[in-house]
């Protein structure tokens, strides 16, 4: 795997996981939300994947992966579109 081990681990509840899974397969949701869901799911399901690996699989920049890993790992920062849908 390319790149160093990620600094921020993504932790999800069962409900968040289900919602992200559903959102990641949506054809009606805005693309940016689908992309975020895919980033978070890959970071959760494959915690040893580097940000580079996730960016490559999702089709986005490494900076976007870093941003969402960091934001999701924060305790009070977690106010994404996914949580608003819950």
Topology, number of strands: 0
> How many whole angstroms does the radius of gyration measure?
12 Å
Largest sheet properties:
none
Strand percentage, roughly? under 5%
- Give helix % range: 55-70%
* Number of DSSP helical runs: 5
Question: What is the average of the pLDDT values?
Answer: 84
What is the CA–CA distance across the termini?
33 Å
Q: Class by helix and strand content?
A: mainly alpha
Give the SSE order as H and E letters: HHHHH
Shape: globular
Spans of 5+ residues with little confidence (pLDDT < 50)? 75-79
Give your account of this protein's structure.
The protein is mostly helical and 86 residues long. It is 59% helix and 0% strand. Helix 2 crosses helix 3. The longest helix has 15 residues. About 6% of the residues have low confidence.
Structure keywords:
globular, 86 residues, mainly alpha
Layout of SSEs?
Layout: H1 14-24, H2 31-45, H3 51-58, H4 62-73, H5 81-85
């Amino acid at each position: 795997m390319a790149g160093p081990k990620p600094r921020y681990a993504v932790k999800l509840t069962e409900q968040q996981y289900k919602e992200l899974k559903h959102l990641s397969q949506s054809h009606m949701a805005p693309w940016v939300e689908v992309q975020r869901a895919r980033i978070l799911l890959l970071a959760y399901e494959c915690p040893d994947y580097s940000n580079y690996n996730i960016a490559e699989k999702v089709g986005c920049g490494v900076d976007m992966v870093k941003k969402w890993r960091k934001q999701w790992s924060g305790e009070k920062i977690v106010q994404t579109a996914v949580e608003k849908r819950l």
